[in-house]
Specification:
Layout lengths: L1 H25 L6 H26 L10
Length: 68
């Protein structure tokens, strides 16, 4: 379940990244959509990091490195 949550967050982050690219290429005048998409991407990235950190410290999942 945790992997699906992370994959969903990453999919939405990539979607917002490409939406910002689309708005940048399609309309050169500044209408704010590109900035809004990039702001959502940054917010979702920070939220994903916070959720993963909280999940680790609450014991929902353990991070592991190579060779453990």
């Amino acid at each position: 379940m945790e992997k699906l949550l992370v994959i969903a967050f990453l999919a939405v982050i990539v979607w917002n990244l490409f939406a910002a690219l689309f708005h940048m290429v399609s309309k050169p005048q500044a209408d704010g959509r590109m900035v809004r998409s990039l702001s959502w991407r940054i917010g979702l990235s920070i939220a994903l990091l916070a959720i993963m950190t909280a999940g680790h410290f609450l014991g929902f999942w353990r991070f592991h490195g190579i060779g453990q």
